[in-house]
Design goal:
Blueprint: H1 19-22, H2 25-28, H3 47-50, H4 53-56, H5 62-76, H6 82-85, H7 100-109, H8 112-117, H9 120-125, H10 131-146, H11 168-171, H12 181-189, H13 194-204, H14 212-219, H15 223-241, H16 247-260, E1 263-265, H17 266-270, E2 279-280, E3 285-286, H18 287-294, E4 298-301, E5 304-307, H19 310-322, H20 330-336, H21 344-353, H22 372-388, E6 399-401, E7 407-412, H23 415-418, E8 423-424, H24 427-432, E9 440-445, E10 448-454, E11 458-460, H25 464-469, E12 477-482, E13 487-493, H26 501-508, H27 518-528, H28 537-547, H29 550-556
Parallel strand pairs: 9-13
Antiparallel strand pairs: 1-5, 2-3, 4-5, 6-7, 7-12, 8-11, 9-10, 10-11, 12-13
Helix pairs in contact: 5-10, 13-15, 14-15, 26-27, 26-29
Length: about 550
């Protein structure tokens, strides 16, 4: 679960923050134009940024405040993810949002994280989901947790808020004392302007960076402004790392790199130093996120911090195990992957985390080298899998990485699908969702169970009921993935009616917001086909040709 640096107060404890501290869109919106905020009886002007929340709750109870925030989310920030409107939802126990409408939405989304990743507009597009009562229930649950037993009456406006001590206190320490690392960071980044601060929170130091186009819409600026602000902030970060005063921090980074090796579980990284879990006062993010953004060569992939690309390391692991003359014992396998830079203390975790080992999964590695028959059978399975030639999902046609971090397969609905025919799956996507050659299994969906199989080819069973529920027609699109809990998630996009070629190309990768310029569209598509660094048009077209996305190539020319 992402750490948003938020804690719920105990009953009766006074909260020294206001609504705009909890709702980031209020920080960058022109609240003066939001009429629903103004003229609230019993509340002063600009109460959302001046009045501590416990005093607001003395006038607007939790349900009324939840209803107000729902109205704002749907009317003013429909493109913002629910979890971005009220980040405290990420640390809420889902059981506290016990509401039938939330249960339906959660079932559709497949997971709590998936639900919070949906925007208000996307939530409203879900079949059988009523966005307004869902949002009201979610927001109200948070405000109920924050409501004190006895709220103070509001007698007069609050003209001043209690602020943290100024950053200058760090510089006033005696010269012989070395400030601790969080203080070094706060001293360097304590004076960011509002827009740069938002880019820091939502892009540079975010657990899951926001889409630049979405952030630009929320800030009411051109997307190029977001890219320029991010580039300037990263440059400022690089220049700070080169300064002599950053030496203690750089020594910490060197120690982490040496300690972690090629891969380490996220939990170990977060707890590697006591101060990693502290919130940086200047940026209002946990310190470990700052460390992650500056750790050279390492990237976070789900629950693992990896030097380089996780899929490449997984493939090297599979190849190493598969190349053994006979399936190795567990101790031997753990010893072998040490050559890949995997430290012994995390080797077993890493081995168990690698899907589709070509020789066998970790649990199938021969426990006894004397069991020759079992080893021979495993060797046969190894050869069968090697003949399949599994592809990287990033190089698989019609597979796109969505903002939730998962890869989704686009299926162009045909008459056969509508009549109940099976849905062929590319082998790269089948491997990504954990299906192995020769395997049959059943997965849950919002419309019942669906079969997955890989015999002559990978395939998904009939989606006729799901297609009927979403009113799919021939020529429309559905995007499929499996949640971390193994739930089949389905998103439907009706067939495009007209529109320019750029908009149609974006729709084929699952992007439905206004297209902007061709350059901006190219950046979106590049990200969704797995190109992490900024790339030019030739590199994007080369990747599309490599993947076989001829429809996108035709539209992009």
């Amino acid at each position: 679960m992402p750490d948003y640096g938020l804690v719920f107060v105990s009953d009766g404890e006074r909260m020294n923050f206001c609504l705009s501290d909890l709702v980031p869109p209020l920080r960058w919106s022109d609240a003066a134009r939001i009429t629903t905020l103004a003229d609230r009886p019993g509340l002063p002007d600009a109460w959302w940024r001046t009045l501590p929340l416990h005093r607001v709750l003395a006038v607007l109870d939790a349900e009324a405040l939840g209803d107000l925030l729902t109205e704002l989310a749907l009317d003013h920030w429909p493109a913002a993810a629910v979890g971005d409107v009220l980040p405290a939802l990420h640390v809420l126990d889902p059981d506290e949002a016990d509401d039938p409408q939330v249960a339906i939405a959660l079932d559709r989304a497949g997971s709590w994280h998936g639900l919070l990743a949906l925007s208000g507009r996307e939530l409203a597009d879900q079949p059988f989901v009523k966005a307004r009562p869902v949002l009201t229930a979610l927001f109200t649950a948070v405000f109920l947790r924050m409501s004190p037993d006895e709220a103070e009456p509001v007698s007069e406006p609050i003209s001043e808020r209690v602020e943290d001590p100024p950053d200058e206190e760090v510089a006033e320490q005696p010269e012989h004392e070395v400030p601790d690392i969080p203080e070094l960071i706060d001293a360097a980044f304590g004076g960011l302007d509002d827009q740069t601060w938002m880019v820091a929170q939502n892009r540079v130091f975010a657990d899951e960076p926001s889409d630049p186009e979405q952030l630009a819409r929320l800030l009411a600026v051109h997307p190029a402004v977001i890219h320029d602000l991010e580039a300037a902030l990263r440059d400022r970060l690089s220049r700070w790392l080169a300064l002599p005063e950053a030496k203690p921090y750089n020594e910490h980074l060197a120690w982490l790199t040496d300690t972690f090796g090629a891969a380490v579980p996220k939990e170990r990284f977060v707890t590697a130093a006591e101060w990693h879990g502290r919130e940086l006062r200047s940026l209002e993010v946990p310190a470990w996120r700052f460390v992650l953004a500056t750790l050279p060569g390492h990237r976070l992939f789900g629950d693992w911090l990896v030097a380089g690309d996780i899929e490449e390391l997984r493939e090297r692991t599979r190849s190493l195990i598969a190349s053994a003359e006979r399936p190795p014992t567990v101790p031997r396998a753990l010893e072998m992957i040490g050559s890949l830079g995997i430290r012994p203390d995390v080797a077993r975790q890493w081995l168990e985390s690698v899907p589709q080992l070509r020789a066998q999964k970790a649990s199938e590695i021969a426990p006894d080298r004397q069991q020759d028959r079992q080893q021979d059978r495993q060797q046969d399975r190894q050869q069968d899998r090697q003949q399949v030639g599994l592809k990287d999902v990033a190089l698989t046609r019609r597979c796109f990485r969505q903002p939730d971090g998962r890869w989704w397969l686009r299926v162009d609905v045909s008459g056969d699908h509508l009549q109940g025919g099976e849905v062929p799956l590319p082998s790269g996507f089948a491997a990504y969702v954990g299906l192995a050659p020769g395997e049959d299994r059943t997965v849950r969906s919002a419309a019942g169970e669906v079969g997955l199989s890989w015999h002559a080819r990978p395939a998904l069973g009939s989606l006729q009921r799901i297609l009927s529920e979403v009113s799919a027609e021939e020529g429309s699109h559905i995007f499929l993935t499996l949640s971390e809990e193994g739930m089949l998630r389905v998103r439907h996009l009706p067939a495009a009616n007209g529109g320019d070629e750029t908009s149609r190309a974006l729709r084929l990768v699952g992007y439905t917001a206004p297209s902007g310029t061709p350059e901006q569209a190219a950046r979106v598509i590049a990200t969704r086909v797995g190109l992490s660094a900024p790339v030019g048009r030739p590199e994007l077209l080369a990747r599309l040709r490599e993947r076989g996305d001829r429809d996108l190539l035709t539209l992009l020319g």
